[in-house]
Amino acid sequence: MVVLVHGQPGQAADWRDVAGALEPSHRVLVPDRPGYGRTGGTAMGMAGNADALGRLLDDRRVESATVVGHSFGGGVALALALRRRELVGGLVLVGSVGTESSLGPQDRVLGLPVLGESLAFAGFQASRWLLPALRRSTRLPPALASWLRAVPEPGPAADAGRAPAAATWRSFVIEQRALLAETPALEAGLSSVRAPTAVVAGPRDRVVPTRAAGDLAAAIPGAELVWVPGAGHLIPQEAPGVLVDIVQRYASRR
C-alpha cells in the first residue's frame, strides 16, 4: 500500500501523475485531507491529520503502508510515523516541513492573527482573477499548468471534487497556525522515527527553504537525502517520474 498525502492548500488531484504511474503495480490511497476536496469539514493540525489518516487506514484494514507526504503533508506523514509507528513501513518526504528551518518568514507572517488571515484572504481573492487566465495560457510549462488545474477553483461554486475558495481559505489559516505551533514538538521527535525514510527536495524550492531538507534528513536516523535537479517545491507535478521511482524503491523494501 502507498498513501499519498497532499500539501497546504491542496487536494488528492495534486498526485494525479504520481498515482497514475503507481496504480498498475501498487495499491494506492490518495485521500483529501480534512478541510479540503471531497472530505471537507474542519481543517486540523498535523497531529489531528495524522490521527484522521490512521483511522482511515484502520477502516481500510491497512496494516502498514509507505506514506508519501508533500510539504505540510510531509509533516502529517511524520506525525503518523510517531503516533502510529506500526502503520508506517516507509516514508517519502517531498519538499517537507518538520523542522524549524522549514519555516520561512512568510510562514510566520501568515500565521499571525488578523494580519496573516488578511494576507491569506487577499491571496485567495487575487486567485479569483488570476487562475482562470493562467489556466487558459498556452505558454506555461506543462508542470505548472498541471498544478494550476489541481488548485481549488475560487468562487462560491465548485465541482464535486473541489472545496469552495472560502472553505479552502479557512482551512489554510487553521493549518498555518498549527504549523507554527506543532513544528517544535514534531522536530523533537524526529530521532524516534524508525521507518526507512527518503527526504526529497528541489534545489529551486522557494516555499520550504532548501536547507531544511538537509536538517530533516540529518535528524531522522538513516534517512536518505535525494535532490531532484532543476525542481522547485512542486515535485509531484514537476518531476513525477523521478518521484515514482523513489516511492517504488521504498515500497519494495517492505
Task: Put the structure in a nutshell.
With 254 residues, the chain is of the alpha/beta class.
Describe the protein in words.
With 254 residues, the chain is of the alpha/beta class. Helices cover 47% and strands 11% of the residues. The chain contains 10 helices and 6 strands, in the order E-H-E-H-E-H-E-H-H-H-H-E-H-E-H-H. It has helices at 16-22, 46-59, 72-83, 105-110, 115-136, 142-150, 165-188, 211-219, 235-238, 240-251, and strands at residues 2-5, 28-29, 65-70, 88-94, 197-201, 224-227. The chain has a 6-stranded parallel beta sheet with strand order 2-1-3-4-5-6, with helices on both faces. Helix 8 (211-219) links the parallel strand 5 and strand 6. It is globular, with a radius of gyration of 17 Å. It starts with a strand and ends with a helix. Mean pLDDT is 84; it is low at 142-163.
Percentage of residues in DSSP E strands? 5-15%
Count of alpha and pi helical runs: 10
- Outline type: globular
What is the H-and-E element order?
Answer: EHEHEHEHHHHEHEHH
Strand arrangement within the widest β-sheet reads 2-1-3-4-5-6
Portion in helices: 40-55%
Number of strands: 6
Secondary structure class reads alpha/beta
What's the rounded overall pLDDT mean? 84
Radius of gyration: 17 Å
Extract low-pLDDT stretches.
142-163
**Cα distance spanning the termini:** 10 Å
Largest β-sheet summary? 6 strands, parallel
Assembly status = single chain
